[in-house]
Amino acid sequence: MECSNVRDMLDEYLHGELSIESASAVEAHLMDCADCSDEYELLRAGDGFLREHLGEEFPPDDVRA
Fold first, then answer.
1. What's residue 48's pLDDT?
2. Angle, nearest 10°, between helix axes 3-14 and 20-32?
3. H helices present in the chain, as ranges
4. Could you report the per-residue pLDDT of 4-51, keeping only the tens digit for each?
5. What is the pLDDT of residue 61?
6. Cα distance between residue 14 and residue 37, in whole Å
7. Which residue of 5, 10, 32, 62 has the smallest Cβ count within 10 Å?
8. What is the pTM of this model?
């Protein structure tokens, strides 16, 4: 899998939204590619920071529709 494809899927991977096959391919790539692994760690850290400081509030259903 190419870096550009993996980077496009990192957010979905982080949030458990990928199929098992896609998640496995991303995991394998992250083990072999330091650049993508670093980018994933930055995304994960940023996501954790936002969740810690902002919580997980969701907009009302009528706004999301």
1. 76
2. 120
3. 3-14, 20-32, 34-54, 61-64
4. 999 999 999 998 999 999 999 999 999 999 999 999 999 999 877 767
5. 72
6. 12
7. 62
8. 0.75
CB count, 10 Å around CB of 36?
A: 21
Phi-psi bin for 24: left (phi > 0), alpha (psi -120 to 50), beta?
alpha
Q: What is the spatial distance between Cα 37 and Cα 55, in angstroms, rounded to a whole number?
A: 25
Structure tokens that stand for 27 in this block:
């995991």
Q: Is 4 exposed, middle or buried (0-12, 13-18, 19+ CB in 10 A)?
A: exposed
